[in-house]
Amino acid sequence: MSTAEAWTVGKLLTWTTEYLKSNGSQSPRLDAEVLLAHARGCQRIELYTAFAEEPTEETKAAFREMVRRRSEGTPVAYLVGYKEFYSATFEVNPDVLIPRPETEHLVVEALDRAKQIRETRGDANAELRIADVGTGSGIIAISMAKHLKHCHLTAIDISPAALEIARRNAAKYDLDDTRITLVEGNLLEACPQEHPFDLILSNPPYVSQAEFEQLDKTVRDYEPQTALVAGPLGSETIVQLIEQAPAHLADDGWLIFELSPMLAEQIDTWIPAGWQAPIVTKDFAGHARIISLSRK
């Protein structure tokens, strides 16, 4: 981007879109708009009425640096520090996974099951205890707390750094300890069995080591490997969760988790006696994505 030319908003977007496209971006125009809006400190939609304007030198310098890093593979969400999920905005950084639209299916399924539990109990306002296992940035726990009254969330993660991001995101939406409790631990090991959960939710690691090596570099080189890779098979964490869940689940409760469509066909081999047949929810692409399990 030559400083001798008048680099208007429109010209910056056009040039950057082509540049990012040539460097492998799957959404070059969107990337360019998000980065420029962030550099200008405005909403993305405001760019469309500012095509003829020339940003300040400070703005152009900040934008150039983000474009450079994006061309090297840094995800846009990490460059701007946030990602939208279920109609809300969440802080993210390389300590946590970037929220994916597929995980919204888990929230929708969980809200439906919460309604079902209350209907079965004959109390539309029954207090529910919900665990979010591997909470990361807290998107599942916070989304549930925002959209479901009379519930308490226990957000669990093995990473203290991830829990700090979740804490800040919860505070942003005024969700204090009376709504969401953050717990450091591995899966459900830190949770007392005498206080069972009505819902246990999780977007656990479900990538195999071999699959991880084949991921796009924007995921493989930047997002936390421990939140992605379960082990050689990819199913290790899910199997552990299924094994632990009965001791922590209310009699009429549900275990709901996300998984890779490639693992979905194996789900029956992981479920021991005592569980009902799994309910499979597909994502918008028609792939099996969410598994719901109950014990009666």
- Low-pLDDT runs: none
Main sheet: strand order: 5-4-3-6-9-11-10
Strand content: 15-25%
CATH topology of the largest domain: Rossmann fold
Total number of domains: 2
Q: Give the terminus-to-terminus CA distance.
A: 63 Å
Strand count: 11
Residue-averaged pLDDT: 95
**Rg over alpha carbons:** 21 Å
Description:
The chain has two domains: 9-72; 94-294, 3-Layer(aba) Sandwich (Rossmann fold). It contains twelve helices and eleven strands. The chain is 39% helix and 20% strand. It is elongated and about 70 Å long. By secondary structure, it is α/β, with parallel strands linked by helices. The termini are far apart.
Keywords:
12 helices; alpha/beta; two-stranded antiparallel sheet; 7-stranded mixed sheet; 296 residues; Rossmann fold; 39% helix; elongated
